[in-house]
Amino acid sequence: MSNNDNVFHYLDSGLEDISIQSVYIEEEDLNLLLAGYKFNRFRLYIYYILCVLTGGTFYLVCRWIPKLWVSLVGNVCELGKADWVVVKNQWGDISIEYVTRKYYGGTISSVFSVDNSEDNNVSRLTSYRSDDILHNLHFFDHRYIRFIYSPILGKFIQNNFWKDPAWVSVDVLKNGIDREIHNEREIIFGQNLIDIKEKSTSQLLIEETMKKLREMSKFVCNVRTLRGNLWRTVSSEDLVPGDVFEISDRNLHIFPCDAVLLSGDCIVNESMLTGESIPVSKLPIDDTSLNILDLTSTNVRPEVAKHFLFSGTKIVRVRRAKNSITSSSADTGNISDDDGALAMVVRFNTTKGSLIRSMLFPKPHKFKFYRDSFRFIGVLAIIAAIGFLISTYNFVRLGVNTVLIILRALDLITIVVPPALPATMTIGTNFAIGRLKKEGIFCISPPRVNVGGKLNVMCFDKTGTLTEDGLDVLGVRFINQISHRFTELHTTVDTIFKNDSYKTNNSIPPILCAMTTCHSLKLVNGELIGDPLDLKMFDFTKWILEESGQGVSSSTLGLSAGSAPSGRPSSPTTGNGGIVPTVVRPPNSKQFDLTEVLNVEGKNSDGKPTPYIELGIIRSFEFVSSLRRMSVLVKRLRNQTIEVYVKGAPEVMRDICKTDSFPEDYDELLHYYTHNGFRVIACASKSFTDLSWMKAQKIKREQVEQDLEFIGIIVFENKLKPGTASVVETLKRAKIRQIMCTGDNVLTAISVSRECGLVNKASKVYVPRFVQGSSLSSRASILWESLDNPKDSLDSTTLKQIISVSQDFPNDYPFISPYEYDLAVTGDVFRWIIDYGDEMTFTRMLVKGQIFARMSPDEKHELVEKLQEIDYCVGFCGDGANDCGALRAADVGMSLSDAEASVAAPFTSRKMDIGCVIEVIKEGRAALVTSFSCFKYMALYSMIQFTTVSILYYYGSNLGNLQFLYIDLFLILPIAVLMGRTEPFPRIHPKRPTASLVSKKVLTSAIGQILIQSGIQFLVLVIIHNQSWYRKPTFNPDETDIKNFDNSILFLLSCFQYIIIAAVFSVGPPYRKPMITNVPFIITTTLFTFITAAILLSPSSLIISLLELENIDYLFRWYLLAIVVADFLISLVMEKYVFEVISQWIGIAIVKSDKKMFKKILNEMDTRDAVNYV
């Protein structure tokens, strides 16, 4: 037993020894401690005997207290010898997982990757070789993640880290695996199936949501797989790592596993993962990308992501490789470059698995309500224990039968701590989720609904969230070669050719070439799909885009590729196992004619050059958020040079373009557009004269994106969404702080913020810049300058305004304090202050920063976490594309997406505007208040019944079985359910509802109502004892006397009290609509009031018999009804007016400082104490 205690000490301390292991699951952000145990057979049999003797009670106790079970039946042992493993996470939750042993017989390297062999225990490592035989597999599954024991390390290892050492060449991968290897890997990895364990019928009645989740998660389909050089159709359940399967099968619509694309190309919809429904193009993997494939990392590297097919994502389009197979060739085993994919990770170790696990095992949230609810239940349990002891003493005093004493005392425990209490706490949440679903808002984490009611800061992405996703092109401006300045704004493509530079020849402006080629658009069934910004840009040019298999082959551009046979319209073919270039050409231009291109003289029948203008995109470097740009290699028809076109953020062009290529008015024009809320994309280009097609496929991105010539800018209108301004104003009135967190330019972000009202137009906005050094230098210095007046600045450490003694402030806005200001922080400054800045400066920046621009996805995530560290309850709303980390880290994340549920956020809105934020906050507040009301109602129900039963126990009586049934089933259950049905109030109140059950307001109300209801019961008891017709209960030590005056009157009075408390606790404005709007609740309480009144005033003989009621004096019945009315009026007046005043008095008497850190920081930053300089 002492060894077990030591193990739990180790588990609590996080230390390791031979029987204990620590594990970090990165994708879950989960820390686990594993401890190995073997059964102690003798103590196990004692445990079984105790379970039988106690009628299962001891079994329940051990289920509730796992440490007790572990200490009783287990002995600590080495992990490799364990029968079962104790798993403890960072929140203290303990689970028991049994170890499965299976005969294997394969090599160690076929189970454990070389990457898993990082360990300091050299003696262990040197005693094993990778080709040693592993006779038995020891493994267990925790949260649907498999852990396999490694004899090399003496530890359990996740099998999703495994990578076949033979995966070094794409050509090798295309051969697939044989049946023997498949059988081995099926033992190791299990089935490729996300299969949630089924529960019993009784459990499913309680957890219907789990059944729906299982239906959603379980996906099985048939796939054509290459095994042993033969193609065969198998179930997706049978896929294992290394299997090659065909994705061009018309019956395959969703990827059944995580895989890499070997040949062909495809377009997929990854909205389930990112929340963004923009299709993503996937290309075949090459040897370089294959070698850097890292399955141990949570996120797939950008270099590999373009080849990676995620489980559960939808297939939009697939194109076959050149040598596509036929059914006959497949059946005969003729292997060719089929458009197959390699399944890399199976079962729950996929990205889709992460989504399901996030639903099944949400992170515990440090929310006061849930923490205090358990404390409150503990207090009720103490009251029950006291009542148990007092009742037992009383029954012994009266000489009651021992069996009856035990039954009655246990009854008292179930009365004080009602079993239905946890269920009633979720009623408001369930109604809220149902209403949100009707509004097109889906929730995968119900506990976050209540958290939504406590939000005090809301972060928004800009593009696609506050502003329209599809930006309109305002126009383009390029360089006038004569003046070396920007041309006028060209609002149509036709005016570009009217420029002097292009009037005299038939050349194409470079800016137009960049706009038509530098994008990620794809053609699917005759329709262009891709990023909305790219779509708008390409539409502006009016050019035509064609893809291989749809009228254009690789020979068009004179490249070394064979002719491409025509394929199915839905699955066109690509040449040479790779991708034939996408071709763009001007509208109304003559389509390519091979005979004319082959004309030796290159002239048509008129003696003039053939007027073909076609550009082929032979290679693309996708947009990378850290680089903030993308580039393409383009081959022009009948031209030997290969041209490079780059588009990206204007700021990055300084680093990759020649300095003398920028026009003189570059900074001036950029400043104008960004200050006025326009989005600017800069373009650059250069040419390679000696670059062949083969070299173009191997050239590195760094070589392409350097020494470029700047060619111009594309200006987009960043229009606000119609509902943005009204939502921002609503949140502002509700005193919920709003922050813009975007990857866009800081000046554009400020302009949009002022336009939508997120930043007051009259407030000063200070923007930082480095006056010395950069974000990479610890000795850098930052200057915070006013956007409108560079001479106006902040102290770089305190972030307070530097005000001259003689400085005057303009009084253009008399209602705006001259000391009010906001900060617009850039990503590089944000990173520098985190890495090198002062902590005080950083926290002050967090509370004053309204705009965070040029933020990378990781920096957005970090911003959310830093805000939480200073006690903000943070919401984040984004389109899901680059916001996944921030959405998941936020207390309440809301993704705007067409998907019903995505791994991106707890909430997903199918309405693509931020109106969902208002709905979630309103429903969150209503659900939170409802949870408090239901909790208080159940507490009062318990205390009222506790008082009734305790009084009756004193006289040797009790409530009858049918009386209990009438109260619990017919009164309490429907009332508790329906009182949570009240809808949220239309407006958001500036003050947030309390989240603490031990707050002054809640405790004052609960204790006050307990005193009122108990007091009235004692008052009525005193009154009836003084009536002439009153008769004391008959005491019988072996049988409880039910039919007596005490029982009948207290039963009827308590029935009225349950209804009264429900009406009093049905909170209306400012968080919910008035109680009268909840029609089912009004009807139910009215009906029960009349029924109870009828039982009191005129009960039928059947009712009297069933409920075992005494015949009460008729006049006293009306007297009791009058007491009930008085009870209602007293309770209502006290709840609405008196208790609130008392709680305020208590608050004044108990002066407490602000607990929230951000409030303390704001108090310290009293702007009137600004630094003064003479």
Automatic annotation (TrEMBL):
<feature type="compositionally biased region" description="Low complexity">
    <location>
        <begin position="553"/>
        <end position="574"/>
    </location>
</feature>
<dbReference type="InterPro" id="IPR023298">
    <property type="entry name" value="ATPase_P-typ_TM_dom_sf"/>
</dbReference>
<feature type="transmembrane region" description="Helical">
    <location>
        <begin position="1045"/>
        <end position="1067"/>
    </location>
</feature>
<feature type="region of interest" description="Disordered">
    <location>
        <begin position="552"/>
        <end position="582"/>
    </location>
</feature>
<feature type="domain" description="P-type ATPase A">
    <location>
        <begin position="223"/>
        <end position="322"/>
    </location>
</feature>
<dbReference type="GO" id="GO:0016020">
    <property type="term" value="C:membrane"/>
</dbReference>
<dbReference type="InterPro" id="IPR006544">
    <property type="entry name" value="P-type_TPase_V"/>
</dbReference>
<feature type="domain" description="P5B-type ATPase N-terminal">
    <location>
        <begin position="28"/>
        <end position="150"/>
    </location>
</feature>
<feature type="transmembrane region" description="Helical">
    <location>
        <begin position="962"/>
        <end position="981"/>
    </location>
</feature>
<dbReference type="Pfam" id="PF00122">
    <property type="entry name" value="E1-E2_ATPase"/>
</dbReference>
<comment type="similarity">
    <text>Belongs to the cation transport ATPase (P-type) (TC 3.A.3) family. Type V subfamily.</text>
</comment>
<protein>
    <recommendedName>
        <fullName>Cation-transporting ATPase</fullName>
        <ecNumber>7.2.2.-</ecNumber>
    </recommendedName>
</protein>
<keyword id="KW-0472">Membrane</keyword>
<keyword id="KW-0460">Magnesium</keyword>
<feature type="transmembrane region" description="Helical">
    <location>
        <begin position="402"/>
        <end position="421"/>
    </location>
</feature>
<dbReference type="InterPro" id="IPR044492">
    <property type="entry name" value="P_typ_ATPase_HD_dom"/>
</dbReference>
<dbReference type="Pfam" id="PF13246">
    <property type="entry name" value="Cation_ATPase"/>
</dbReference>
<dbReference type="GO" id="GO:0019829">
    <property type="term" value="F:ATPase-coupled monoatomic cation transmembrane transporter activity"/>
</dbReference>
<dbReference type="GO" id="GO:0140358">
    <property type="term" value="F:P-type transmembrane transporter activity"/>
</dbReference>
<feature type="transmembrane region" description="Helical">
    <location>
        <begin position="376"/>
        <end position="396"/>
    </location>
</feature>
<dbReference type="InterPro" id="IPR059000">
    <property type="entry name" value="ATPase_P-type_domA"/>
</dbReference>
<keyword id="KW-0067">ATP-binding</keyword>
<dbReference type="InterPro" id="IPR001757">
    <property type="entry name" value="P_typ_ATPase"/>
</dbReference>
<dbReference type="GO" id="GO:0005524">
    <property type="term" value="F:ATP binding"/>
</dbReference>
<dbReference type="InterPro" id="IPR047819">
    <property type="entry name" value="P5A-ATPase_N"/>
</dbReference>
<keyword id="KW-1133">Transmembrane helix</keyword>
<dbReference type="InterPro" id="IPR023214">
    <property type="entry name" value="HAD_sf"/>
</dbReference>
<keyword id="KW-1278">Translocase</keyword>
<dbReference type="InterPro" id="IPR018303">
    <property type="entry name" value="ATPase_P-typ_P_site"/>
</dbReference>
<dbReference type="InterPro" id="IPR023299">
    <property type="entry name" value="ATPase_P-typ_cyto_dom_N"/>
</dbReference>
<dbReference type="GO" id="GO:0016887">
    <property type="term" value="F:ATP hydrolysis activity"/>
</dbReference>
<feature type="transmembrane region" description="Helical">
    <location>
        <begin position="1079"/>
        <end position="1104"/>
    </location>
</feature>
<feature type="transmembrane region" description="Helical">
    <location>
        <begin position="44"/>
        <end position="62"/>
    </location>
</feature>
<dbReference type="GO" id="GO:0046872">
    <property type="term" value="F:metal ion binding"/>
</dbReference>
<feature type="transmembrane region" description="Helical">
    <location>
        <begin position="1116"/>
        <end position="1134"/>
    </location>
</feature>
<keyword id="KW-0812">Transmembrane</keyword>
<dbReference type="InterPro" id="IPR036412">
    <property type="entry name" value="HAD-like_sf"/>
</dbReference>
<feature type="transmembrane region" description="Helical">
    <location>
        <begin position="938"/>
        <end position="956"/>
    </location>
</feature>
<dbReference type="InterPro" id="IPR008250">
    <property type="entry name" value="ATPase_P-typ_transduc_dom_A_sf"/>
</dbReference>
<dbReference type="Pfam" id="PF12409">
    <property type="entry name" value="P5-ATPase"/>
</dbReference>
<keyword id="KW-0547">Nucleotide-binding</keyword>
<feature type="transmembrane region" description="Helical">
    <location>
        <begin position="1002"/>
        <end position="1025"/>
    </location>
</feature>
